[in-house]
Amino acid sequence: MSVVEGGSFPMGQANALDDEQPVRFVSITTFHIDKTEVTINFWRKIEKWAVKSGYRFSSGSSNAKRGLSWHFADTGDYPMNMVNWYDAVKWSNARSEFMGRQPVYFTDSKKDTIYKTGETEIDETCVNWTGTGYRLPSEAEWEKAARGGIQGKNYPWGNFIDGSLANYKRSGDPFDDAATPVGYFNGEQIITSNVNSLGGENKRKLDVRNNYQLYDITGNVGEWTWDWYQANWYSNSKSSVTDPKGPELSDLKTSEQYKVYRGGDFRDSPNDEERSRKLRIAFRHVANPEFASRTLGFRCIRSDAVDELWIEKQKIGSVESKWFYVNWLGSFFQSKDDWVYHEEWGWIYPTGFGSYDNWIYFPKVGWVWTSKFAYPYFYSSPEGEWYQRLFENSRSGWFERQYDKHLSYWGR
């Protein structure tokens, strides 16, 4: 992910469409954002874990399409598509849990029940906005990241566009009328000369990442945001507060209940009149939250925050007990001076954040690194090598070095 530093920026575009005005300064808190759109491969990896953990997604997400060979291609990191807004939100929660972070979306304002199933109309009170987990960007967060610090332009690189810069309708790339693999426009892209191409004849080899190193801000697939759509939202004083979340659902008529997505897609054309170009950064696309299309995907962001170490630990025994359990790490006793007595390894010294960035000092081997995502693999800092924890009862406390299968005893 890339870090988008907090600060104010002019959101919207002057002399453009009515719902993109007025341009006003919006202040955003620092956040992290995916450099690319979420890929089908990554979606499937998290989905496999999520379904085993009580998550349920719409059947349409299984029909995500890859490139030109819609039903047959099985390789390549194409952007996830055929995913509705609800599934994008639930998957973001699953990604958080999978990585050892705290999920941010809940089905209630008390934040007691993690949003895992169904198509629930959650509002902003159901979201832990300052949590460490993954979520959809607000419209304002998306636009700040998309602009990359360059203001008032149609695209991340300026006011012009041709087929060498983005994947759009008849752009001249080999994937025309289809998604390209994420990050395809990296300076090595192939743009074919084609009489049917809208600007694809220009064969410049440009890396078109913006100043935050983000790919595919323009074209490829559109990207869901958190916000409900309201045509006159930019004129509302609430749209100019710090970290605006969009209009509240209760303020919208039933016929107006659409979510915003941004960035345009591979079926949008840049050859319309200037005022209606759908590929521009400021353009506000809308769709029903249950809508799914092969032209629509998403990328995640997360707040610039950290969790306390193993925040999900569960107490074992009485209230006074100092024994705890972490479902992927096991049981341990917490001493007063930060040393931990692990049921298998004896005394160890852990430090780090949540379950996503954990350093553990084993007296016999020194500092090693792991996380819920990497476990049961551990990286030995002194050696610069990876080890795997062995679980057989006869090998309790033993670890196997990956490159040569050498066994080491790290236990008590």
Q: How would the blueprint of this fold be written?
A:
Layout: E1 2-4, E2 7-11, E3 24-28, E4 31-33, H1 40-52, H2 85-99, E5 134-135, H3 139-147, E6 222-228, E7 259-262, E8 285-287, E9 296-297, E10 301-303, E11 314-316, E12 323-326, E13 330-334, E14 340-342, E15 346-353, E16 357-362, E17 366-370, E18 377-380, E19 385-389, E20 398-401, E21 407-409
Parallel strand pairs: 6-9
Antiparallel strand pairs: 1-4, 2-3, 4-10, 5-10, 6-7, 7-8, 11-12, 12-13, 13-14, 14-15, 15-16, 16-17, 17-18, 18-19, 19-20, 20-21
How would you describe the overall organization of this protein?
- This protein has 412 residues and is mostly beta strands.
- It folds into 2 domains: 1-305, paralog of FGE (formylglycine-generating enzyme), CATH 3.90.1580; 314-409, no CATH class.
- It is built from 3 helices and 21 strands.
- The protein has helices at residues 40-52, 85-99, 139-147, and strands spanning 2-4, 7-11, 24-28, 31-33, 134-135, 222-228, 259-262, 285-287, 296-297, 301-303, 314-316, 323-326, 330-334, 340-342, 346-353, 357-362, 366-370, 377-380, 385-389, 398-401, 407-409.
- An 11-stranded antiparallel β-sheet has the order 11-12-13-14-15-16-17-18-19-20-21, with no helix packed on it. A 4-stranded antiparallel β-sheet has the order 1-4-10-5.
- A hairpin with a 3-residue loop joins strand 16 and strand 17.
- The chain is globular and about 70 Å long.
- The two termini are 38 Å apart.
- The mean pLDDT is 91.
